[in-house]
Task: structure prediction
Amino acid sequence: MKAELLISLRMSLTVSLLFLLFISGVVAQDGWAVNYNQKSFCALKGSAVTMECTYTYPSGHSVQKAFWTKELVTSGSEPPDLSDDPEYRGRVLYLGDEHSDCTLRFKTVREKDQNKYYFTFITDQPGGKYQGAGGVDLSVTDLQVEVPERVIEGDNITLTCKTTCRLTVTPTFTWYRNGHGLSSSTDQLHLQPVSREDAGRYRCAVLYQNSPEVTLNIRYLQVEVPERVTEGDKVTLTCKTSFSLSDSPTFTWYRNGHRLSSSADQLHLQPVSREDAGRYRCAVLGQNSPEVTLNVRYGPKSVSVTISPSGEIVEGSSVTLTCSSDANPPVEYNWFKGTSLVAKGETYTVNKISSVDSGEYKCKCSNGFIKKYSEALTLNVLCESVL
Result:
């Protein structure tokens, strides 16, 4: 009875040791081991994945079968070979051998391939079965474009090509707007600042994989100003929006960063003056429009003529007349002696002046739509003999 009990105990211990040896993923005392070079993969649907792997076993054994399976064996039975599964046939390729290399390659991965995979081998000796514990986790993801919910023209925004897991191999991304390729080659597309021209359908791609298209809508505030404004005109600036507003919202207007008194969607400048020129923006519901410039044209003002050097003018000396004015756009200058045009430009210089140069001089300032003359300046040239 004791002998039978001892034999039963020895058989039980042997089976337990064989089972532990079969599922272990570390080197056992007798040399059994499976080493997965990488324990997890995140791959794009449709891409290829190579699971590199090496294995060892005691001397005196010869490998009869080496294969991968997605079943963790909990008994002495042989798990199913992945290559025999109709779902994997033709898409997985065992690149290893029956000595030490156990590399497996997926030609193309599908979403339902997401699983844990184990390498298993069987030798010609009794109890010579072994499965690497831990296995390799394969996660399969697709591409999705993430866009901000509310985008206002002028914001700095980033579109992201997202995956459900971090890709093991960093690929080159391609971005498209309305079917046309963009320059970014990373997982992010920066639109800084964004404009209404950036609105459209966006998708990202990696080689053969495309994300679904998403639409980027740009909300905007815009200050409308007349194209040509002349001092004295009646001018109205309008704050336009691309989104619906609540009843009677409060608008805020700014010129050169300083707040103005108007609280309506229109700012009336009637009549407009040169002091009204500047950078304008409007704001409503916490949103700001881009700045626009109001350019106010006005004719020459404060036209004056100076002479250098001042004092008595003697024959043979050099004299320069300078004309100045305030105008927008800048003026062109013409010099007249009496009614005769004698020069053009802001200054008029007479070298070696003589008595024939005596007379009345004026400058005419013109900026295309208004002209104005300076007051006459009289030059009296004295002869040296007189002095």
